[in-house]
């Protein structure tokens, strides 16, 4: 099996189940299924959904969600994982747009009105059914994953079985991921990170997933994982726990790989985690529409602030930004087998997201490091600041601010300025006693070029975030 030729079934271990735990959910008294039991329970789901055009899954963070998704994929029925925290308007849009014929849920789970109107199938972990003996075509759709909708109603990104298989195989190559690995994480199951990488990833390898509910130091130590997935907020909290719990830090240090994604991990937290565990966190970069584009590999020493090289089979290019003084920045564009097959019911949005020569425009701005890794500096729509003739990436300034011990969180934006065009304004959540504006501005200027220093620092108790935990800069009080 190679990353560019995923000719095996999507989940080959379910055809010849190994004597190994496949799924384990929970920190205390966990619920688990071995591969034979998972094949039977998922086979029963497959029989219940066979022939449907599309099914929704109420993606609560439990084992029933994983079995529901696996069963539908075995039947070749595209899955719409639904964020259980969606508001009424967003959920109504997702259900109307995707038009699922069934909704799969854990027994006893209360469904909101929009989903309650859809015929329901409860997932029975004790049920047994045969695994279908025919594999859908590689180009057949596997998932419709909805974007977070920060710039309008959520859009359903259609991901094929080829996209999922090829990307997971590329990550297996990058991270030396095998059936012997036990992956632990506590991610939601309605997006790419938690579901595709975090559930389908270990199952495609024939390994084990332990979903521990929360990325807690003692729970992780007891789980004894070889791999851990998390997001920066989780790792930040974990670093504090590990510094106070040497036993758990030593135990976690026996893991093979810590992987962070969905946002940048600060240099400070990189250093804290390495000091506590002896492990260097690997970062990776991807979007719903592209799956994972770049990743720091298991074999190479990662660069804090960078997200690795393109994974096998994926091409990434940086298109120079118009104008001068861009500091080597470029628009990140991608093509490859893991690219989505368009937005459901939105040919206009699909066309707008692609260049004339067929590359997907991520909307991100980045630069190549001297070692060939990609470093991201922000989103073109919100994070490219044009100040005094320079194009400045907000992400670089945010990362620099986060290296100051007095900064817990930071978000940087450009605000209209009569003299500069835009001035750099930083919103900062302090860690303890707030440092002075001058101290933070000088700190940034000492790490980056002087024109990137914040002209204004505004302290706030919290940054506005969406359900995925990402900062929504449009909600910052810039006026």
Task: For the structure shown, list the relevant keywords.
single chain, 479 residues, alpha/beta, Rossmann fold, GMP Synthetase, Chain A, domain 3, nine-stranded mixed β-sheet, four-stranded parallel β-sheet, 26% strand, AMP-dep_synth/lig_dom
Fraction of residues in β-strands: 25-35%
CATH class of the largest domain: Alpha Beta
Helical residues, percent: 25-40%
Cα shape: globular
Quickly count the helices: 13
Going by CATH, the homologous superfamily of the largest domain would be ANL, N-terminal domain
Overall mean confidence score, pLDDT: 91
Return the structural class.
alpha/beta
How many DSSP E strands? Answer: 24
**Uncertain runs:** none
CATH topology of the largest domain: Rossmann fold
The second-level CATH architecture of the largest domain is 3-Layer(aba) Sandwich
- Multimeric organization: single chain
User: N- to C-terminal separation?
Assistant: 55 Å
Into how many domains do the coordinates divide? 2
- Largest pleated sheet: 9 strands, mixed
Radius of gyration: 22 Å
Strand order of the largest sheet: 2-1-10-9-11-12-13-14-15
Family: Belongs to the ATP-dependent AMP-binding enzyme family.
Domain AMP-dependent synthetase/ligase: 18-344
Pfam family, one: AMP-binding
Protein name: AMP-binding protein
């Amino acid at each position: 099996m190679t990353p560019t030729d995923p000719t095996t079934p999507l989940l080959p271990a379910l055809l010849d189940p190994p004597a190994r735990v496949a799924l384990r959910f929970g920190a205390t008294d966990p619920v688990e299924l071995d591969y034979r039991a998972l094949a039977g329970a998922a086979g029963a789901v497959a029989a219940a959904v066979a022939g449907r055009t599309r099914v929704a899954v109420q993606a609560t963070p439990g084992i029933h969600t994983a079995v529901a998704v696996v069963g539908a994929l075995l039947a070749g029925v595209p899955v719409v994982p639904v964020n259980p925290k969606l508001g009424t308007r967003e959920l109504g849009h997702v259900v109307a747009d995707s038009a699922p014929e069934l909704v799969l849920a854990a027994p006893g789970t209360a469904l909101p009105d929009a989903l309650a109107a859809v015929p329901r199938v409860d997932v029975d972990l004790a049920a047994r059914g045969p695994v279908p003996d025919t594999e859908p075509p590689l180009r057949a759709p596997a998932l419709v994953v909805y974007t977070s909708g920060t710039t309008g109603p959520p859009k359903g990104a259609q991901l094929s079985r080829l996209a999922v298989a090829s990307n997971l195989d590329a990550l297996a190559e990058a991270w030396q991921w095998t059936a012997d690995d036990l992956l632990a994480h506590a991610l939601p199951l309605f997006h790419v990170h938690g579901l595709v990488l975090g559930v389908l990833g270990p199952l495609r390898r024939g390994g084990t997933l332990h979903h521990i509910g929360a990325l807690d130091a003692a729970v992780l130590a007891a789980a004894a994982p070889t791999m851990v997935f998390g997001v920066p907020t989780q790792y930040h909290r974990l670093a504090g726990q590990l510094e106070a719990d040497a036993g758990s830090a030593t135990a976690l240090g026996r893991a093979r790989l810590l992987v962070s994604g969905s946002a940048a991990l600060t240099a400070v937290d990189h250093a804290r985690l390495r000091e506590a565990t002896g492990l260097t966190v690997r970062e990776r970069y991807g979007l719903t529409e592209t799956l994972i584009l770049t990743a720091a590999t298991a074999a190479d020493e990662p660069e804090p602030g960078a997200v690795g090289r393109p994974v096998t089979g994926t091409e990434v290019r940086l298109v120079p930004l118009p104008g001068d003084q861009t500091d080597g920045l470029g628009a990140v564009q991608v093509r490859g087998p893991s690219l989505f097959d368009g937005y459901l019911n939105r040919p206009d949005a699909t066309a707008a997201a692609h260049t004339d020569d067929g590359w997907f425009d991520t909307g991100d701005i980045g630069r190549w490091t001297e070692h060939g890794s990609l470093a991201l500096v922000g989103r073109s729509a919100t994070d490219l600041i044009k100040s005094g003739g320079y194009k400045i990436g907000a992400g670089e300034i945010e990362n620099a601010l986060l290296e100051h011990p007095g900064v817990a969180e930071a978000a940087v934006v450009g605000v209209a300025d009569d003299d500069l065009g835009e001035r750099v304004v930083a919103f900062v959540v302090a860690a303890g006693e707030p440092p002075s504006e001058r101290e933070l501005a000088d700190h940034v200027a000492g790490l980056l070029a002087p024109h990137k220093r914040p002209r204004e620092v505004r302290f706030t108790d919290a940054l506005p975030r969406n359900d995925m935990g990402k900062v929504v800069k449009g909600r910052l009080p810039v006026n």
